[in-house]
Specification:
14 strands; Argininosuccinate synthetase, chain A, domain 2; Rossmann fold; elongated
Amino acid sequence: MPAPQKPAPKKVVLAYSGGLDTSIILKWLQTEYGCEVITFTADLGQGEELAPAREKALMLGIRPENIHIVDIREEFVRDFVFPMFRANALYEGLYLLGTSIARPLIAQHLVRIAREHGADAVAHGATGKGNDQVRFELSVAALDPGLRVIAPWREWSFTSRTKLLEFAEAHQIPIAKDKRGEAPFSVDANLLHTSSEGRVLENPAEEFPEYVLQRVVPVEKAPDTPEMVEITFERGDAVAVNGERLSPAALLARLNELGARHGVGVLDLVENRFVGMKSRGVYETPGGTILLEAHRGIEQITLDAGAGHLKDSLMPRYAELIYNGFWFSPEREMLQAAIDRSQEHVTGTVRLKLYKGAARTVARWSEHSLYSEKHVTFEEDAGAYDQKDAEGFIRLNALRLRLIAARNARVGR
């Protein structure tokens, strides 16, 4: 027996970029459901002018009071990027989660605006093959389970790009000349990273062409002279660059500038999507790559071995939760509480050398340091460490190994 059809939504809040695809979605919602559409455009530091999004929404019949363009850069870095970097989170050991970490924040604002307008649904432009649909919809479910989520790419009957363009032309939606053919690859950007996927990048056996890079200088064209940068941390979060205190978003933007000109932070990755397939992407995360190296550097001298090793063992699970869209899950929040507790003394300064695609820690210092030079010195240690104590330590740790060896000899293994 077929499932009963859902009633058409009355008000829908659309995650709207102002681009062709989300403009088509906007008009499709109006024509398919006859509903009122409210747009939300997030300024995440993607480097694009957002005023055209307002103009296009107005042109498509959206009332001015229903157009929301919100600068959420500081919120993005302070409440999402920085907590993630306290964990040194890397998905599959490499990916700094630049797209993944932005989606729950966008969903959070979609829900907020839906409540303000009394909307009964939200909509997004993610396709049915990717991870973003999962991230948006899991986040909305966690924040407001009563809201309906509309995913046009899973619902409409358009079977080709040509059909989409025909719909756009029929409804007087402007189509830029470069949108009439297939784009060589798709790009998603925010203050943390730029992600390029699809088409020219789909064959992982071929090196990506240089023109794919959007913000990072190719390493071959990076300066021949290294540059030093100092990053200061307080309780696990970066607060200053070269002694200048900056807001979270301004600090990440500064590191992006430094890293980009030295070719830092380019990753060519074939990853495992949550929906089951492998995909290839080229990620540019210059500031984030520097930040991760610096955070690791300050943790080296301020974080206890037991806490640090436990934290490292939790990191893959934490990163996977973010990648799969579970930012608002109780398990992510539990892990975050443990991670944040570990950062109480992660305060100090790290000096890094940027050169030809690498960001390398060369010095670190802190009043909270656990490093004791008098204990590790090869010179006279003035009684700080009695080397004879190591004999008993080794003997006790070897006991179980001796017993296993004796047992194996006895039974003839």
